[in-house]
Amino acid sequence: MTEPTTPADPTKPLAPQAVDGVVVIKDPPEAGLDLTADAAEISGLRLIDAADAARKRY
């Protein structure tokens, strides 16, 4: 039997990184992700920034 997963903190934005031309998000939740409006906005901006960095490094 699988153990229940701990839900992600909805106030904590994602922390993507550009690695070898791709955007990597470490430890994303396995299921759907609920974020507050602020965390979603910050995550979106971070994803855009990581995508830009990935393009420039590859």
Structure, explained:
The protein is α+β, with helices and mostly antiparallel strands and 58 residues long. 36% of the residues lie in helices and 10% in strands. The chain is flat. The chain starts with 16 loop residues before the first strand and ends with a helix.
Task: Summarize the SSE layout with pairings.
Layout: E1 17-19, E2 22-24, H1 37-57
Antiparallel strand pairs: 1-2
Which H/E pattern describes the elements? EEH
Gyration radius, rounded:
13 Å
Q: Spans with pLDDT under 50 lasting ≥5 residues?
A: none
How many helical elements? 1
In round numbers, the mean pLDDT is: 86
- Overall outline: flat
Largest sheet: 2 strands, antiparallel
What is the subunit organization of this protein? single chain
Q: In which order are the strands of the major sheet placed?
A: 1-2
Quick one: how many beta strands?
2
Give the termini separation: 42 Å
The level of helicity is 25-40%
- Strand-residue proportion: 5-15%
Secondary structure category: alpha+beta
